[in-house]
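Repro:
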Amino acid sequence: MTAPLTELDATAAETGASATKVFQQKTTHATASAERVAAIAADALGALHEVIRKHNVTYPEYDALKAWLIAVGEDGEWPLFLDVFIEHVLEETVNANRQGSKGTIEGPFYIPGAPRLDGEGTLPMREDEPGSPLTFTGQVRSVGGTPLAGALVEIWHADALGFYSQFAPGLPEWNLRGAVVADADGRFTVHTVQPAPYQIPHDGATGRLIAAAGWHAWRPAHLHLKVSAPGHQLITTQLYFDGGPYNDSDIAAAVKPELIIAPQDGQVSYDFVLDKE
């Protein structure tokens, strides 16, 4: 009899396929004029042309690039590659003028529709969920200081082995994923476990690039959050742990000083301030 798969059997191809499927279900509303498309495409291609000239790229290297691009698609890793290497610049640009709490990248592992919790609750988890208990509290306010009653705090994170539910086998569907509705004072409390640092899936095409460049594939331990309230701009962010490894060398370049938290005795508090629409 074949033993059931566990999260340790996760592969980049399977993770990439899951991320691609999730992205394809996402509704997009982007529209652009022909002039804007032409301007962006021309600048992007021009930048690549300049890289070729600067480094005297050879035909064997060009063929290797084509083979690698094909492999990224075949492995379903475009969401992973783009979110790791590109999204942090997009996030900074899009939110440059937004007031309130700092945001950072969403990454490829967000799933909408997580179980709702009211005010205070425990994220869905296994009875024997490994990891140190963590109680996360906070308040959601507007930039003017008004508490935002009923604000929605979506939270998801990796487990103590560095794996996400719905992207690794053997994990319950909503493991360590939830959506907390803040109380009348905008306050919330989430009981969970502290996540671990992890390497992004690296046995596929993205990993081959990382290895060829001599980089590491590690992300620091973090909590993912989306915080929203009617009439206010949604914040997508991550919170990192003070003193944690890879905070200064995150492969996704997503760590910001304002997003560092320092739990004491398994408890930590962090407030969110939302700008108006």
